[in-house]
Amino acid sequence: LLSGGFPLLRMHQGEFEPVHTLLLGRAMNEPLVAGASAWPMTRHRLATFSDNPGLAKWAGTMGELGLLEQLVPETQGQRIGLILPNGYFTHPSSSPLPQNLESYCAFVHLSEHAEHFFHSRETLERRIAWAIEHPEQRDRFSRESAQKARSRKTYDALANDVLSFVRDRLSGRSR
Which of 14, 75, 77, 147 has the least CB density, counted as fewest CB within 10 Å? Predict the structure, then answer.
């Protein structure tokens, strides 16, 4: 990243949970619309992708990353939505997103571009073809990721963090 390359990474199980939590948390910031067939007496309701733009965006990104199949089973050949507890419909998710995603989540570190990830031989081939066919967008993604890496993953960034920590401790502040 620091040299401006365009990494292609296999989506692995350790990356799955932070990406899922991050994107679903964002989708839950919007009020959800329950599907017409949801019964108020049940503990769960269906939130269709067609009625919930945040969930539709979540589904699109999860599909691009090859993760949607693990989370949303097909119903009559379609993936129509998520079955969620009633609380999601009455109180949008107020749970905080995982801390320090920049430190350990490659998806976040790579500016949340699904184009950096593959999950099968076919998706690797598609990503390579995309990178070759879209040089301007590939270069823009590389610049964004390199800028993030330079601001957080260099000796200068580490030295600044250490000095800030020492300065805060000496002044009686804690992080």
Answer: 77
Beta strands in the chain, from DSSP E residues, in sequence order: 9-10, 44-48, 81-85, 117-118
* Nearest-5° Cα angle at 76, 70 to 80: 60
Residue owning tokens 């949970």: 17
| Residue pLDDT, tens place only, 79-128 | 888 777 777 776 665 555 666 776 678 888 788 888 999 988 999 999 99
Q: What is the pLDDT of residues 19-63, one digit of tens each?
A: 887 888 777 777 777 775 555 556 777 788 888 888 888 888 888
How would you class 47 by CB atoms within 10 Å of its CB: exposed for 0-12, middle for 13-18, buried for 19 or more?
buried
Task: Write down the residue that tokens 């990356």 correspond to.
Answer: 15
Strand (E) positions, 87-175? 117-118
For residue 156, count CB atoms less than 10 angstroms from its CB and return exposed for 0-12, middle for 13-18, buried for 19 or more: exposed
Tokens of 165: 């920590």
State both tokens at 74: 């097909």
